[in-house]
Amino acid sequence: MASIVGPLGGITYGVKLYGYFLIIGLIGAAITLVGVGMAVLGLGLPAMGTSVVAGSPEGLSPNLAQVLFGSVIALVGFGITQAGFLGAIYKIITDAVYTANRESKKTALSDEALSND
User: Fold this and answer.
1) Relative to the CA of 87, which of 45, 47, 69, 80 has its CA 20 to 30 Å away?
2) Is 50 helix (H, G, I), strand (E, B) or coil?
3) From CA 117, how far away is CA 110, in angstroms rounded?
4) Which of 29, 21, 39 is nearest to 78 (CA)?
């Protein structure tokens, strides 16, 4: 059975879908990283490469509001990424159904024309 979609159409569709995944992935990852960064900074942990002296907890002063706000931002970024990927899956399925229905109607019309002859 011949394919309904030609090679050029398939490649074009794949490139557009890849671009969509790339954009959604980058946006979601950027928002998630900002949120995680805010939460980590809110914990008041020492910077990388610095030594922590044992027995000095006063150097660590977590800011609970900043940690919670950063966590919410990170969850929003993760949610955007997941919603984008699920939306892409939905688009793939609806495009496939649309193409199959369109071709099915063409076949039905040509079969009807043949039966009337």
Assistant:
1) 69
2) coil
3) 11
4) 29
